[in-house]
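Let us work through a complete example step by step.
Step 1: write down the sequence.
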Amino acid sequence: MTLVIVGGASEPQLDEAVGVFLDSGFQLARWLSAWDDADAVLPLRGDAVSLLKDADAQDIRYVLVHVGSGDGRAGGSHDRAHHRVDIAQLRELAQQLRSRERLLVSCVAFGYKNAIPDGASWVVDVRLLENPYWVEELRPLDGRDPRVRDYVVEQPAAQELLGNLEKTLTAAIPHYRERGRSHLVVAFGCTGGRHRSVAMAREMADRLQKVEGIDVEFTPRDL
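Step 2: predict the structure and record it as tokens.
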């Protein structure tokens, strides 16, 4: 089961965030000892630093979400958050965090000019690869097109990167599952999020499909 601890920049934001989680099927945990066998959300009120330290001391597994701007506290919810979001992003995140029988691995393509995706556990910079943008006939296409895919993925540097990353992720995934993780985001970034990142994210998603016991999705965020 999943315990989500939610902190907010203000009390109204915190209350609204808790309401979103309750609407999404979570139960309300009023303190750590009250959470046992269901997906639950715990609002972070009062001394956030002490509560988080207490959760860590008890070896409680949780996902920390901070809603809104920073709180200015070292060791607080913004400082330590796994996800920093606004209210508009929260409902989708709540659905993602609900307990799953199988770990979901999302291979996300993005452009650095549009920022790194929220919640990315692994960020892979593929700007080291030759860019199809500078090939006139490939420029109007994107990384889903077989011609762009071949141009990107068949580069020796791409093959080396994909092989090493596939090996590392395949070894790490069982440990994420043991720690109760339900969603793992592997984000591939290039300049615009259209060519290299899309081809590489899709290729990695295809490779991870052979790993037993997980679900895999490919998301070209900036297309």
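Step 3: interpret the result. The beta strands are 3-8, 27-28, 40-43, 63-67, 83-85, 103-111, 122-125, 183-190, 214-220.
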